[in-house]
Write a structure and sequence with these properties.
Largest interface: A-B, 52 and 54 residues
Number of domains of chain A: 1
Structural class of chain A: mainly beta
CATH class of chain A: Mainly Beta
Distance between the termini of chain A: 24 Å
Largest sheet of chain A: 12 strands, mixed
Radius of gyration of chain A: 16 Å
Shape of chain A: globular
Number of helices of chain A: 1
Oligomer: heterodimer
Strand order of the largest sheet of chain B: 2-13-4-9-10-11-6-7
CATH topology of chain A: Jelly Rolls
Shape of chain B: globular
Number of strands of chain B: 13
Largest sheet of chain B: 8 strands, antiparallel
Helix content of chain B: under 10%
Distance between the termini of chain B: 13 Å
Radius of gyration of chain B: 15 Å
Structural class of chain B: mainly beta
Order of helices and strands of chain A: HEEEEEEEEEEEE
Strand content of chain A: over 45%
């Protein structure tokens, strides 16, 4: 059985006894509303193979559905991303893809300000490898008056540059609210 | 400054069957919790989880699953427990990883994400679940039952549960 997400998390669990295999690098907890959250200087994290972002996010807007987190790498806002997602919560499982986008997406990872904070866990794989495009994948879920969703997302940045910055916004183009939290972790490789 | 984390808080390996498994006295030393479980049970049912003994209708759920060739999903606004599919028989393992974010924050409800898979013959499936514990209390206890009717079934010998804490 091939369950990538479960696999990597179980691998992390199995490796938990090895000191420093999974390290907290930075945390940003918003104390006031902000249009974006950005981690910079990632080029200094040369000890790590992969990155993980664990977040709870809320958008400063009202509405009946759940928003997405948009993710831009190295401030690239060109149409250099492809994204995919599968999600459920209604009576059917749905999926979709975009082959040319101006950001990556963590689907349904940002609730609105009456709906609590949406949790998400996103992996950025081989983030500093300059021989391949960078891929991400994430799990998220949220609750709104007209929508309850769990989603698995993945995407690729079609660029071989090492990732040096990650920026999060939401597709509502509104502020992330105070209390939203983004923690960045490094995972070591062989 | 990097902080090593993903710390083992507690673990349970059953040496006898048990109607439930609990982690109690969970401190607020970390930002997130991860519960990694592999188990089987005496009968097929839904796995039930409660936090802090809360039996109120405070657990909305959304889930999706692929069962053989069928993809299915649904949601509920208010269960009295966190509920998802679980083990079939004592020879067919169920594995899942549950993430609980901001578990000790007293200004937020607690977001929960689960990835699960199972090798039950004829019911092989993989699933994802999102839930939220609608409480602003710090989470201090997790109790897991193998059945929808609490206390009516057992986790089998050898079932394992590992609870980790992640700084944030």
């Amino acid at each position: 059985m091939s369950l990538v997400l479960l696999g990597i998390l179980n691998s992390q669990a199995a490796a938990a006894g090895a000191a420093g295999a999974y390290d907290l690098l930075e945390t940003q907890v918003l104390t006031s509303n902000s249009a974006s959250v950005t981690f910079t200087g990632l080029g200094s994290y040369t000890d790590y193979k992969h990155l993980q972002i664990r977040a709870v996010a809320q958008a400063n807007t009202s509405g009946t559905n759940i928003l997405n987190l948009n993710v831009n790498l190295n401030s690239d806002t060109g149409f250099n991303y492809a994204v995919h997602r599968i999600y459920g919560g209604s009576s059917t499982v749905q999926s979709a893809a975009n082959t040319s986008r101006d950001s990556l997406i963590v689907w349904r990872a940002c609730t609105r300000n009456a709906d609590g904070y949406a949790p998400s866990v996103t992996d950025i794989l081989d983030f500093s490898n300059t021989n391949k495009y960078t891929t991400i994948r994430g799990i998220a879920g949220g609750y709104a008056s007209s929508e309850k969703t769990v989603a698995l997302s993945s995407g690729v940045w079609m660029n071989t540059s090492a990732v040096t910055s990650i920026s999060f916004t939401n597709n509502g183009a509104v502020d992330l609210t105070a209390g939203s939290r983004f923690s960045l972790y490094g995972i070591k490789g062989a | 400054m990097a902080t090593p984390t993903y710390d083992l808080i507690d673990s349970v390996t059953l040496s006898a069957t048990a109607t439930s498994v609990s982690f109690t006295g969970i401190g607020s030393d970390h930002r997130d919790l991860v519960l990694v479980a592999q188990h089987s049970a005496s009968s097929q049912s839904y796995l039930s989880i409660r936090f802090n003994d809360d039996s109120g209708n405070n657990y909305p759920i959304a889930w999706m699953a692929g069962v053989s060739t069928l993809a299915t999903s649904n949601s509920s606004d208010s269960y009295d427990r966190l509920l998802f599919t679980q083990s079939y028989t004592n020879t067919q393992d169920n594995q899942w990883v549950m993430q609980i974010l901001d578990y000790a924050q007293t200004d937020k409800h607690k977001g929960v994400l689960i990835r699960q898979n199972e090798q039950a013959s004829g019911y092989e499936h993989t699933s994802a679940t999102a839930s939220r514990w609608e409480s602003t209390n710090a989470l201090t206890k997790i109790q897991i039952w193998p059945n929808y009717t609490l206390g009516s079934g057992n986790f089998t010998i050898g079932s394992t549960f590992y609870l980790y804490g992640i700084a944030g």
